[in-house]
Amino acid sequence: MRILLVCAGGASTSILMKKMEKYAKENSFELEITAKGITEYDEYASQYDVILLGPQISYKREEIEIRMQKPVAVIKPYDYAIGNAENIFKQVHSIYPQTK
Amino acid sequence: MVLNENLENYAMVIIANAGAARGAAFEALKEAKKGDFDKAKALLEDSANYAHDAHAKHSELLVMYAKGEVEQSDLLISHAQDHLMCAELARELIAEIIELRKSVERR
Q: Which residues form the domain of B15?
């Protein structure tokens, strides 16, 4: 699956990205993931299946979904804080069931 | 002594909670714009709870720093503090804007 992580500047999602990459490797599934800031994410969105937002831009979810025509979810603050990759992938499945 | 890896965990908890506080505040503003002040109020309360958690974690870190238990701060901690301040300012201003909208609507 291909996931685009978006937060305000792209810094904290980069840390989350590392944790999600590690989880995918450990559970041997394919993952293409990148972290971008809100000012530049739209240039990359077409290359990804789903968009996940950091809690700081939760209020932009609808707007992004309409604009990008892709499933968009906000990562729960607790999962974001501790980098709970398992829960986050479950969330991806719920908005994008096509993925294994 | 707080190790760097542990410091990253602190930073992420602060960022996630400060971020959620900011997000909820902006959602409250959205509801207020629609005229739903009850929903706006509930979201501002959510926002306050998240902000509280973010500050609690930050204070914990400051106390440890004061005791000399943190060897050095790093860029990610500065970034987390940036999130905290952004959230705080957003919360204060949004609460004011919502009050303003309320009083305009009453006229």
A: 4-106
